[in-house]
Design brief:
binds magnesium ion; alpha/beta; 296 residues; binds adenosine-5'-diphosphate
């Protein structure tokens, strides 16, 4: 069974993109076949993994990225996928098994200019083609913007599991709360379009704390998050087995640097500049294993 997973929080800058890219990379290293779908019009995942030059060409062409699928012309989702996306400087694949459905800035038009058939919302059209394609993968992972507009809906509708990146602060808690509210509404509206073969509608399965500074005491924000999660579980608005992940990701310079290098952190050779490098790579590895074990 392919696991279909969204990383989303209604708060921006919490680490959705860095978590999903680095976790996907670790899963691919473990031998899993992973398709990462970029549904954030800011295109951070796509720019990171394709590197700027390759992505700039795609963005300038105005076709070949995920929005093309929603435009008239019958482009197939399968033809938009960038296979083994991570390459070295010579264009050689360095991480077989990690594919990308890229986005460019025109994805914003899905929110404005897109006029589909009202009886066939964008998320349904997307899910139908993804279903067939997904059979080639162990994981399909969606990087979403901090909202539940049309682009995110494609991920949410197709997925069965939601993970919520969080920082140890009040805004992450508010973002989580807002997400669960909007998710409940969306799952209601879209229920009529679901087929049995899709499995259960996406529910929150886990909270992942990110960017934790060395020595920081996060017990209080963690406890507040746990209380909120418990309330949602009692109200059946989060999965019964949902939890705060044991693994948390430390704050490390190399995470920011990885974007410039165009590599996930587990593929960056250590030049001894960042003493926390090995540690944060291990955090991501542990997270990937914990996710792999977590049965939805
Ligand atoms: N563990 C971390 N350590 C250091 N910097 C981080 C870490 N996680 C994320 N960042 C940085 O924080 C910023 C926001 O992260 P990002 O993953 O883009 O968040 P989001 O996708 O939620 O907006 C980026 O500059 C990113 O490099
Ligand atoms: Mg992002």
């Amino acid at each position: 069974m392919t696991r279909k997973i969204c990383f989303i929080n209604y708060k921006g800058g919490v680490g959705k993109t860095s978590l999903i890219v680095n976790t996907a990379s670790c899963l691919a290293k473990l031998g899993r076949r992973v398709l990462l779908c970029d549904f954030d019009t800011q295109s951070n995942t796509s720019i990171w993994l394709m590197r700027l030059e390759r992505w700039n060409r795609l963005n300038a062409e105005g076709k070949g990225a995920v929005y093309s699928f929603f435009e008239p012309g019958g482009v197939r989702l399968r033809d938009l996928i960038v296979k083994d996306v991570v390459e070295d400087k010579n264009g050689q694949p360095v991480l077989p098994g990690l594919d990308l459905l890229p986005t460019t800035f025109n994805l914003v038009d899905l929110e404005n200019e897109y006029t589909g058939d009202a009886r066939r919302p964008a998320y349904l059209v997307f899910q139908e083609q993804l279903a067939e394609l997904a059979l080639d993968y162990d994981y399909v992972m969606f990087d979403c913007p901090p909202n539940l507009l049309r682009a995110s809906q494609c991920g949410i509708f197709s997925a069965n599991e939601i993970y919520v990146p969080a920082n140890p602060d009040a805004l992450s808690l508010i973002g989580f709360t807002l997400l669960v509210e909007k998710l409940g509404k969306f799952n209601q509206i879209s229920a009529g379009f679901r087929k049995a073969s899709m499995g259960a509608a996406a529910q929150v399965q886990g909270i992942i704390f990110n960017s934790i500074k060395t020595g920081a005491d996060i017990e209080v924000p963690k406890m507040r998050m746990q209380l909120r999660l418990n309330q949602f579980k009692t109200a059946r608005r989060a999965a019964p087995q949902s939890k705060i992940f044991d693994t948390q990701i430390r704050d490390a310079m190399v995470v920011r640097r990885a974007v410039t290098l165009g590599l996930p952190v587990n593929l960056i050779g250590q030049e001894g500049t960042d003493p926390t490098h090995d540690n944060v790579v291990n955090d991501y590895r542990r997270l990937a294993l914990e996710l792999d074990r977590h049965a939805a």
